[in-house]
Amino acid sequence: MAVEYDLVIIGGGSGGLVVASAAAQLKAKVALVERHRLGGDCLWFGCVPSKSLIRASRAAYEVKNASRFGIDCENIEIDFAKASAHVRQAIAAIEPHDSPARFESLGVEVIFGSGQFTDRQTFEVSGRKLRARAFVIATGSRPKIPQIPGLSEAGCLTNERVFELGERPESLAIIGAGPIGCELGQAFYRLGSQVTVIGSREQILPKEDPEAAAVVRQQLESEGIEILTGVRAERVEISDGKKVICAGAMKVAVDEILLAAGRVPNVDYLNLEAAGVIVAEKGIAVNKKLQTANPRIYACGDVIGGYQFTHAASYEASVVLKNALFLPVSEVNYRVMPWCTFTEPELARVGVTEREARERYGDDVWVLKQEFAGVDRAVAEGATAGFAKIVVRGSGEILGAHLVGASAGELIGEVVMAMAHKLPVSALTRMTHIYPTLAEVSSKAALLLTKQKYAKNRRLQGLLERFLRWRRNQA
Questions:
Q1: What are the Cα distances from residue 62, in Å, to 16, 39, 225, 239?
Q2: pLDDT, tens digit, for every residue of 385-409?
Q3: pLDDT digits (tens, 9 = 90+) for 129-181
Q4: Helix (H, G, I), strand (E, B), or coil: what is residue 5?
Q5: For 119-141, what is the HEC assignment?
């Protein structure tokens, strides 16, 4: 049966927009369905506003602490409303790139409305029945609201509301010690709020290398942020106009509560059962080609519950595009999927941790760790906290890297490049880095493999000593 579209994309966030833009430019006939507004979580509630607020908070922190460079700044005033205005300005500057007008100019038909599948090959929205060769579900995720007694009565913020604040909360408790909790906790503290971060695990940023996460925790606590780990918020009460979180034997009284305790996929309204699409515990179930149980329907981004990053959604969208438009032969490979937590210091990661590497390769694992304190530019900048840790095999194969320090999200790029092209860690030592730059941290770490191997090889040491002694005697 003939169909009207090559692709019908459901969801106008990062993944959906990448598929729509590329498909339209390849002259495919594309419909893009969005419930609210294009841009998704990244533009309106995630990457753009959070990094804008973090930048404002970093300016405040640098001014407050300028005395360490001999610059005294007294009576600092923070205008939270203006900091919030900076966030809105950043969103407004980027929004045209994700506007309906731009996508319509590319040839995409943009349809606003809440729709659902009526069968395995039909999606109905605003009274229209859309049929296509393939469908792409990219509806993203939303904040998880934990079932804590008293929370709904007390009221709380999520990342979908926190950037709308016109006034700074005097005190803020954040439930969740992952990336969102740590990033926004530090930002609000630097902008003048008293902040308490509550995490259920013993380690903040529990997916990260423990040593690296400890560096971030030390910085947060040194600034004055209270961090409670290994505890859960059991109930919320109202007392003397404050929201009181009861967590074990502790009570935390604050003006506002921010939830940062995970995400849930946006699938409830899609009637996926009618389409033959299976939803697993974390999101829509897909194979390595990103096909759902209905092979004509693909899914990418947060809605599949995997790597919940904008760049991951964009990568998955590129795989979906090739498979949905042409032949389903491309598969996702997350071996080289980097990410970064934008605290100060930043914490960036790619590949496996040291523990994961040892579980897989046993003794054939070498850990190359270079402190930022040993990098001249870091010393000059007064940014010596943190390190680069590269996990490799004896052959030089890079298994993973963990950078915690200034600009870690930028610095990890060359390690990602090396891993993507399956270059040995020695490739990092062959690069000539400008002196002095922070980027030297990677090459200094990479050089440690040669040093560690030499230190363990007594025979080689003896041969080299005899050779040099012979050369001296020949002089």
A1: 38, 32, 17, 36
A2: 999 999 999 999 999 999 999 999 9
A3: 999 999 999 999 999 999 999 999 999 999 999 999 989 999 999 999 999 99
A4: strand
A5: ECCEEEECCEEECEEEEEECCCE
